[in-house]
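It is worth pausing here to work through a concrete case rather than discussing structure prediction in the abstract. The textbook approach is simple: state the sequence, then state the predicted structure, then interpret. We follow exactly that order.
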Amino acid sequence: MKNLILISSILLISGCVQKNTDNTYSSTYSYHSYNQNRSVNYQNHNLRNNRFLTTQIERTAKSHLGKTYEWGANGPYTFDCSGFTKAVFAQYGINIPRVSRDQAKTGKIVPRNYLEKGDLIFFDSKKSSRVSHVGIYLGNGAFIHASSAKHRVVISSLNSNYYSKHFKWGRRVTEGGKYARR
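Step two, the predicted structure:
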């Protein structure tokens, strides 16, 4: 039964299940609770607000582990920090600005204690209090980023001395979640 629900969910999210003329779905196994009299576009509704999407973002980000850091690079073989985040989110139709300073202004602001998997996280540097680095939060204090210090895409701990000291804030560009207000 779980597999049937999962397959139905994927079909709904991908738009493979056809809508009725009244904007409802006839799928018996839809995991979406919906009101038959309410017009809702389920192809986009909650697409960016579910665990499936953030798991896919994590999987895509991790597929780049070990790729070389190069300032100004957008991928697919080399990245800088903001080129990496932009490339990962773009694969899911989430378009964010190119540079970390501008990415830091996109989406809903999220304090450190409310971070969720898939949130962008921002840092300043020893030289400046301005945003100068970005990564993708993976949960449990871990994040993935294109590191200029390590010269590659790596997973680091937000609790490490350096990153803990230089953390600025998070941004949720996948919408929703338990902390999604400005």
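Step three, interpretation. Confidence is low (pLDDT under 50) at residues 3-20, 22-45, 176-182. The chain has two domains: 1-45, 51-172.
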